[in-house]
Design brief:
heterodimer; A: 116 residues; alpha+beta; three-stranded antiparallel beta sheet; 5 helices; 55% helix; B: 697 residues; Aldehyde Ferredoxin Oxidoreductase,  A, domain 1; Aldehyde Ferredoxin Oxidoreductase Protein, subunit A, domain 2; Aldehyde Ferredoxin Oxidoreductase Protein, subunit A, domain 3; six-stranded mixed beta sheet; 23 helices; 34% helix; globular
Chain lengths: 116, 697
């Protein structure tokens, strides 16, 4: 998959901020024995952490919409859509998306550092 | 009486009296939960008392199998009494912990302990074989310690500071030598401060988590019970027992050299490894330093870990899922330790913290907010944050030693706190929106009642989150298979056939395992729930087989994947006791115990009208995945039953089916005389009648 282009200042700022309750995205942390845990995720970084879990369940179309509407990161949203098509299992899809979002997070943190 | 020691210890804390009960008087109930319920019924005359009332009786029971090397069936201890955690009524309830306590108790010569009354000041109970003393906490400064410090002080007091493996000669209780140290179960500050989510802790992290028994002990001024014994347990047929164990582990247990199926953690064939749910931003799941698995007495497949650093020792399951947002693995491991040291129920703390975060995000909770709450959520993820949070629950203050009303409220549990904060009122109340994810009896959600029906129905028809994973293995196996693109252990059709064949006396009714929406309120589903209640009440909670490993339904190591349940349980039981017990005898005794429990709840004030979920379960669809067995065009498949609510009216129909099946009055849910008489519970019927609560029929 192609590299993501560098994010602009607005995207970097949104990615590094927490969102409010109404802008949160909800996932299900599936952990054997402890049950499905509804997880409210309040930041881009929390979503990346969440996707690092063993069986994270996030509705991919909701994630795409969240990236478009809340993060206003159209490029990443389209890449996520591509990743969903590319993966053969939800495990693969989740890992691809995690890597994409992880890459964007690093970009944004670097951007903040260079601005400081 | 093989498998038994012959006497139950009875301690009256009010009068400082040590008495005994002959085990034989309660032998028909076998042990564990059955004996505990029967003793409670006899000793607590007024069942409507509060859990904090000194007249509340707490039973701590073993089973004939404890300490006998039955695989995953030798190490549990059952705790019962009126709890203080559930809402609106603290039901007569149970909890259960592993480790070595029950074995040591039997080695000391006791089948169980019955605690009555309230001591004048803080005490602990010192059991050395047959010598039992109620000791003041002051000389060892035990009151105020955390559960680990408390145990350490008692070990040193009873056994000295010898090195590992040193022989200890008991100076009381008729002598005897052992290399072991006392088994201690203790409360932490949460129990002392009567926090309703306080639990009992034995060793590092064996926790009797639900029911708030830590607070019940705290109200009795009981800090700890220590036991050390040098005796042994008479087994009827030791050779048959060892042969049964070897056959069981050779045929049905995990085999490293010949692996079959995907390893799961809730099955008999689980590999020995720590079941930890720690997760971190970097995705690391397990500590990287030196570690080894730890097992309860007699278990073939330990499920806990001990680590070189000591962080998170023996913590597992929900105790390691708490504070998954921690910013490092070590912080999360230390969070698990906080729960165990302060003696706080992991599940309620975990789910409750999620709720507080929602309220904080909504801007209603935090320093200076409408709900003036001392925690600063800017530090969420740090150790300082979680330490303050756990201390708020345990000390019922601001977590820094200062008075705080909201800290005091937290000690009441999250539903009572939310009610006090006005969060349950109106159409947008937090139990209507589901923000407060506590679906039954004021207790946190575990497995989803809108999807995994036997779990939700079993819980609301009982007294606590059942936490019984019998059928839950199917959910996990299929979910993981779908996620990674593999095959489950068995097809849906095989699963239904294998499980239902074992579910006597309802065997062969395949529709019991149709979790689809069309079948979810049916008579068949009522049978599934009833069988589950009866199996667990006896085999898991009275014989004390471990929930992690039993029942053994589908097993990839077995011929045709048919696990050992229905064949093995009674073999072990009979080898130990010399009785001629059948699997069905166990199910029937489970039914008898379940009926006795229902009678106790009825006397406490339960009526069918109270048996309902929180409103959001009827209004908000479950959005997560859940694959269970169901019929599609006549064929069995694993179906994702996500996206549904429970229909309130139809759930009433289900209750009617269930009450009919149990022989209880469908109008009230009260047990009837004919049912109780058929179970040889005529005196229980008399008691219900005397209180105007005997069911018709």
């Amino acid at each position: 998959m192609e590299k993501l282009s560098e994010p602009d200042k607005e995207i970097a700022s949104r990615v590094l901020q927490e969102v409010g309750f109404k802008e949160r995205i909800v996932g299900y942390q599936m952990r054997e024995r402890s049950g499905p845990m509804v997880k409210s995720l309040y930041s881009f970084e929390e979503v990346v952490d969440f996707l690092n879990d063993t069986f994270p369940v996030l509705k991919f179309d909701e994630l795409k919409r969240w990236l478009q509407v809340v993060m206003k990161d159209e490029e990443l949203a389209l890449k996520v859509e591509e990743a969903v098509e590319q993966g053969h299992t939800d495990y693969e899809r989740t890992r691809l998306i995690r890597d994409l979002m992880g890459e964007r997070l690093v970009q944004c943190k670097n951007a903040r550092r260079s601005m400081a | 009486m093989n498998g038994y020691m012959g006497e139950i210890l009875r301690v009256d804390l009010t009068h400082g009296k040590i008495m005994t009960i002959p085990t034989r008087a309660y032998e028909p109930w076998v042990g564990g939960h059955g004996m505990g319920s029967a003793i409670f019924f006899d000793l607590v005359k007024d069942k409507t008392i509060d859990g904090f009332d000194p007249a509340n009786v707490v039973t701590i029971m073993t089973s004939p199998l404890c300490g006998t090397l039955v695989p995953a069936g030798s190490g549990r201890t059952e705790v019962q009494g009126i709890g203080v955690q559930s809402y609106p009524i603290g039901w007569f309830t149970r909890s259960n912990f592993g480790g070595r306590f029950s074995t040591m108790l039997k080695h000391a010569g006791w089948d169980g302990i019955v605690i009555e009354g309230r001591a004048e000041g803080p005490v602990w109970i010192d059991i050395r074989n047959r010598t039992v003393q109620i000791r003041n906490c002051r000389p060892l400064s035990l009151w105020g310690t955390d559960t680990w410090a408390c145990q350490e002080r008692i070990w040193n007091y009873v056994a000295g500071k010898g090195a590992f493996g040193d022989w200890l000669t008991l100076d009381g209780g008729g002598g005897g030598k052992t290399t072991q140290r006392p088994a201690v179960v203790a409360i932490g500050p949460a129990g002392e401060n009567l926090s309703r989510m306080a639990c009992l802790i034995h060793d590092a992290a064996n926790s009797s988590g639900q029911g708030g028994f830590g607070a019940v002990w705290g109200s009795k001024n009981l800090k700890a019970i220590s036991v050390i014994g040098t005796g042994s347990i008479n087994v009827h047929a030791p050779k048959a027992l060892m042969e049964a164990r070897l056959r069981q582990t050779n045929t049905y247990a995990f085999d490293l050299d010949n692996r079959k199926g995907r390893p799961l953690s809730t099955v008999f064939d689980a590999p020995p490894r720590p079941v930890t749910l720690w997760g971190t931003p970097r995705g690391s799941k397990r500590p990287s330093e030196g570690q080894r698995p730890v097992a309860c007495v007699g278990c073939h497949a330990g499920c806990r870990g001990r680590y070189e650093s000591g962080l998170g020792n023996e913590a597992h399951c929900a105790g390691t899922a708490f504070y998954s947002e921690a910013s490092s693995l070590d912080i999360q491991r230390r969070s698990s330790d906080l729960l165990n040291r302060y003696g706080v129920n992991a599940f309620e703390a975990w789910r409750g913290l999620e709720y507080l975060r929602v309220l904080n995000k909504e801007g209603v909770l935090g320093p200076g907010k409408k709900i003036d709450f001392p925690l600063t959520f800017k530090n969420f993820g740090s150790y300082e944050f979680v330490e303050q949070f756990v201390k708020m629950i345990a000390f019922r203050n601001d977590g820094h030693g200062h008075k705080s009303q909201t800290g005091a409220d937290l000690g009441e549990g999250f539903v009572r706190a939310a009610e006090k904060w006005g969060r349950l009122e109106g159409e947008e109340g937090d139990l209507k929106t589901g923000w407060l994810n506590f679906p039954y009896w004021g207790l946190p959600n575990h497995y989803e009642p809108r999807a995994e029906l036997e779990w939700g129905y079993g819980t609301i028809l009982g007294d606590r989150d059942i936490n019984e994973h019998c059928f839950n293995t199917i959910f996990w196996d299929v979910l993981i298979s779908r996620f990674i693109g593999g095959k489950p252990r068995a097809t849906a059709e095989e699963t239904v056939k294998i499980c239902t064949e074992k579910m006597i006396p309802f065997q062969g009714d395949h529709l019991m395992m149709d979790y689809g929406t069309e079948n979810m309120y049916s008579e068949h589903m009522a049978k599934l729930v009833a069988w589950h209640r009866h199996y667990t009440r006896f085999w898991k909670q009275s014989a004390l087989l471990c929930d992690f490993r039993w029942p053994d339904f589908i097993n990839p190591y077995a011929l045709d994947k048919v696990g050992s349940t229905g064949e093995s349980e009674q073999k072990f039981f009979n080898a130990v006791t010399g009785k001629h017990f059948s699997f069905l005898d166990g199910i029937e005794l489970g039914r008898r115990i379940w009926n006795l429990d229902q009678a106790i709840w009825t006397l406490q004030g339960r009526h069918r009208d109270m048996v309902h979920f929180a409103d959001y379960i009827y209004q908000v669809p479950y959005g997560g995945p859940c694959f269970m067995t169901s019929r599609v065009n006549g064929a069995w498949e694993y179906v994702n039953i996500s996206g549904r609510c429970i229909d309130k009216e139809k759930f009433e129909e289900f209750k009617t089916h269930f009450y009919h099946l149990e022989g209880w009055d469908p109008k009230t849910g009260y047990p009837s005389r004919s049912t109780l008489r058929s179970l040889n519970l005529g005196t229980v019927a008399d008691e219900l009648e005397k209180n105007g609560k005997l069911g018709k029929g």
